[in-house]
Specification:
The chain is α+β, with helices and mostly antiparallel strands. It has one domain (3-59). 37% of the residues lie in helices and 12% in strands. The protein has helices at residues 6-12, 34-50, and strands at residues 16-19, 56-59. Strands 1-2 form a two-stranded parallel ribbon.
């Protein structure tokens, strides 16, 4: 999810969310930055397996591109 939606998503109580610092419409990162996009995707997949409770909110720790 895009960081701008942090407040809205908290009220929806989703099971797990990975917040990214990217612009709306580019949650995986900028076009043509495949390394960055893969890093975000792997972080999201890792969250699927590591989140043991509902309501897991994780911020992507990579640098903004």
């Amino acid at each position: 999810a895009v960081g701008a939606f942090n407040g809205r998503l908290a009220g929806m109580n989703p099971p797990r969310v990975l917040f990214t610092p990217h612009l709306m419409g580019q949650p995986l990162g900028p076009p043509h930055h495949s390394v960055r996009q893969k890093a975000v995707l792997y972080a999201a997949l890792n969250l699927l397996s590591s989140a043991t409770t509902g309501g897991s909110f994780v911020h992507f720790e990579g640098e903004k591109s």
